[in-house]
């Protein structure tokens, strides 16, 4: 457990929760990333602007991190690009089909005690665990 | 409260600020590092419980705020809260979550950290987000076709726009 960062991760989590609460208080929306992004496809123009604004905010925040804390982008895994391409495809289809991701079902759905979100989180944590095991042991060849 | 153009602008400003805070939180939490995510998901390895702290901190914070906020009759800049009310556990929910988990454990990215990591200029994040948007477009096209066979043109156009991103 040498990489465990309880304080920074909890604080980061609190910030994520506050961001989601801000979105709900002012705009009445659930800040589920896959929902906000996926809604761009086929949304009327009036509904598109706030989604693009949120996306722009994520990128601005990302650039801020790059400037002031570039170490957050330290990638120790060096996954092959085909794996990331396939991962993206699965995440894109899966989040739209399942109606949410870690933010929509996890951060926002669990505290609302949504039965659908509890089911989704249980399922994606389980398949995520299996898949991560395959990635670590077979694709990255740790125990091959 | 009526919807006015001023409110539309205000909603966009809120969305942008929310995005920035969200991104900074993800970065601080370590979620832009796929190694930390896989270190959590793969419990058989050198286990890193950090992701549980992120999820716990975020869910607890949002949970407290949620209970206070929904006592209001409406959000500040819109007429009503748009909160999912579905209760049905169907094969789409389970199947979708299954696919999402597989992708998450394969790449170590979920949608938020993927988008934020675009700012790093890394090729991996670019490819991940490109194919993720492609996947979202494919799903939209597919559901449009099921709902009404003639209404697929719009989605098709958007799907084609996504393809160059994937190629890059």
Protein model, in words:
The complex is a heterodimer of chains A (144) and B (168). Chain A is 72% helix and 0% strand. Chain A is an all-alpha fold and 144 residues long. Chain A is globular, with a radius of gyration of 17 Å. Chain B has 168 residues and is an all-alpha fold. Chain B has helices spanning 5-29, 34-41, 50-69, 91-107, 111-117, 123-147, 153-167. In chain B, helix 5 (111-117) packs across helix 6 (123-147). The N and C termini of chain B lie far apart (45 Å). In chain B, 52% of the residues are buried.
Short description:
The complex is a heterodimer of chains A (144) and B (168). Chain A has 144 residues and is an all-alpha fold. Helix content of chain A is 72%, strand content 0%.
Low-confidence stretches of chain A: none
Question: What multimeric state do the chains show?
Answer: heterodimer
Q: What low-confidence regions of chain B span 5 or more consecutive residues with pLDDT below 50?
A: 151-168
- Structural class based on helices, strands and sheet pairing of chain A: mainly alpha
Overall 3D geometry of chain B?
globular
Largest sheet of chain A: none
The major sheet of chain B is characterized as: none
Number of strands of chain A: 0
List the helices and strands and how they pair.
The complex is a heterodimer of chains A (144) and B (168).
Chain A lengths: L5 H22 L5 H6 L6 H24 L12 H18 L3 H8 L5 H25 L5
Helix pairs in contact in A: 5-6
Chain B lengths: L4 H25 L4 H8 L8 H20 L21 H17 L3 H7 L5 H25 L5 H15 L1
């Amino acid at each position: 457990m040498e990489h465990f960062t309880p304080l920074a991760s909890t604080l980061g989590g609190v910030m994520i929760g506050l961001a989601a609460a801000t979105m709900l208080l002012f705009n009445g929306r659930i800040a589920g990333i896959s929902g906000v992004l996926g809604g761009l496809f086929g949304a009327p123009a009036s509904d598109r602007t706030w989604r693009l604004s949120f996306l722009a905010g994520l990128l601005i925040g990302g650039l801020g991190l790059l400037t002031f804390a570039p170490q957050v982008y330290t990638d120790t895994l060096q996954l092959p690009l085909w794996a990331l391409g396939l991962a993206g495809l699965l995440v894109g289809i899966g989040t739209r089909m399942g109606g949410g991701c870690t933010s929509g079902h996890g951060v926002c759905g669990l505290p609302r005690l949504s039965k659908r979100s509890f089911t989704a989180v249980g399922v994606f944590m389980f398949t995520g665990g299996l898949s991560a095991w395959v990635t670590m042991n077979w694709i990255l060849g740790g125990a091959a | 409260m009526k919807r006015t153009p001023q409110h539309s602008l205000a909603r966009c400003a809120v969305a942008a600020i929310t995005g920035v805070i969200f991104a900074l939180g993800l970065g601080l939490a370590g979620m832009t590092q796929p190694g930390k995510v896989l270190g959590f998901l793969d419990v058989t390895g050198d286990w890193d419980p950090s992701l549980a702290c992120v999820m716990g901190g975020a869910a607890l914070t949002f949970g407290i705020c949620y209970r206070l906020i929904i006592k209001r009759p409406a959000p500040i800049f819109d007429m009503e809260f748009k909160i999912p009310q579905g209760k049905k556990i169907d094969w789409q929910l389970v199947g979708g979550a299954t696919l999402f988990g597989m992708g998450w454990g394969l790449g170590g990215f979920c949608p938020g950290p993927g988008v934020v990591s675009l700012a790093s200029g890394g090729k991996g994040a670019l490819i991940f987000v490109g194919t993720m948007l492609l996947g979202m477009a494919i799903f939209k096209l597919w559901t449009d076709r099921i709902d009404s066979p003639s209404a697929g043109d719009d989605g098709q156009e958007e799907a084609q726009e996504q393809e160059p991103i994937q190629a890059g």
